[in-house]
Amino acid sequence: MNAAAKLDDNVTKLDVEAPPQPQPVAAPVAVAPLAAPAPVAAKKPRRLGRLLLMIVLPAALAIGGGYVWVTGGRYQETENANLQQAKVSIASDTAGRIVQVDISDNQLVKQGDMLFAIDPEPYRIALAQADAAVAVARVGIEQLRAAYSQAMAQERSDASEVDYAQSQYDRAADLAQKGINAKSSLDQAKNDLDKARQQLAVAEQGIISAKAALAGNPDIETDKHPTVMAALAARDKAAYDLAQTTVKAPADGVVSQASSFKVGQYVGSGTPLFALVETGDTWIDANFKETQLTHMKTGQKAEIVVDTYPGRTFEATVKAIGAGTGAEFSLLPAQNATGNWVKVTQRIPVRLELTDADAKMALRTGMSASVTVDTGVARGLPAIFGHATAGEAQ
């Protein structure tokens, strides 16, 4: 064992003392420059900035949103609005054949402009007949006056006959009492007196009849007599019918649905022929949510923006607020007595009147519009706690 240990020690010394062998030189390898590590002191400000951003930004948004909410609520807006104009159905009050047409479809007309004319000749003839009837009625009244005068004269004559017959009867009675005259003469005198009295009664009835024919007033004016008044009314009706053969525009507007209206067409009385959309009577029907009507009142100012003129604003005022929601006036109102009821915010129509008269000519019925009403009342801080704002108190 000692010999082996010595041998190992010699080999180890030889390995240590042997000169180093030359090693092959490896090719140089390019090494990417390493990024300089961030200083430890810079991490704290970045973390602080992030923390401040996470706190300040939500707080700013909350404050800004709260300010907008508190100062808002004064202007109530809706896009559920349409412009409306009165639509008049044009019809003729008289029947006849069209002889003249002065309008065309979508033509702008003014109040009093002639639209069309019906053949007036039959109505001229009817007017002439009515004039003749008036003249005949006036002549009849003069005849009634003459009959009344005749009845008065007859009554006076019969009254004289009664007086004469009475005197003859008295004389005959006196003579008969004295025995000078025969009884037959007394009977004849009595018979003559009775006849005279009967004739006087007939004459008095003739006066009453003649007076009644004069409407109980012998001095009545001719044109005040009922017969003449009836004839005059018939004459006025004939004159009115003749005037209605020329149909004129009842208001300023645009003619609509008149493309098939032509000369030669026969029209009946009261039959709708075409429509006239009045440009002078323009309003807006805006459907606001029921939650938007808290402070809305008639007379408040509003602004209208029509989709046709997006860059133009029209001024208006609140004219009226509807009596109920649209569901209340529908043909089949909703029945909420069942158990599947779901609360839905209802809309109530609000009518607004345009205050700019010149703007009405540029608008057409049915146009879509956006409405903004100035209620004059903002929410304010007290609204959060349920108190009235200064605007509400006013």
UniProtKB/TrEMBL annotation:
<dbReference type="InterPro" id="IPR058634">
    <property type="entry name" value="AaeA-lik-b-barrel"/>
</dbReference>
<feature type="transmembrane region" description="Helical">
    <location>
        <begin position="51"/>
        <end position="70"/>
    </location>
</feature>
<feature type="domain" description="p-hydroxybenzoic acid efflux pump subunit AaeA-like beta-barrel">
    <location>
        <begin position="284"/>
        <end position="373"/>
    </location>
</feature>
<dbReference type="GO" id="GO:0030313">
    <property type="term" value="C:cell envelope"/>
</dbReference>
<dbReference type="Pfam" id="PF25917">
    <property type="entry name" value="BSH_RND"/>
</dbReference>
<dbReference type="InterPro" id="IPR058625">
    <property type="entry name" value="MdtA-like_BSH"/>
</dbReference>
<dbReference type="InterPro" id="IPR050739">
    <property type="entry name" value="MFP"/>
</dbReference>
<keyword id="KW-1133">Transmembrane helix</keyword>
<keyword id="KW-0175">Coiled coil</keyword>
<feature type="domain" description="Multidrug resistance protein MdtA-like barrel-sandwich hybrid">
    <location>
        <begin position="87"/>
        <end position="277"/>
    </location>
</feature>
<dbReference type="GO" id="GO:0055085">
    <property type="term" value="P:transmembrane transport"/>
</dbReference>
<keyword id="KW-0812">Transmembrane</keyword>
<dbReference type="Pfam" id="PF25963">
    <property type="entry name" value="Beta-barrel_AAEA"/>
</dbReference>
<keyword id="KW-0472">Membrane</keyword>
<feature type="coiled-coil region">
    <location>
        <begin position="179"/>
        <end position="213"/>
    </location>
</feature>
<protein>
    <submittedName>
        <fullName>HlyD family secretion protein</fullName>
    </submittedName>
</protein>
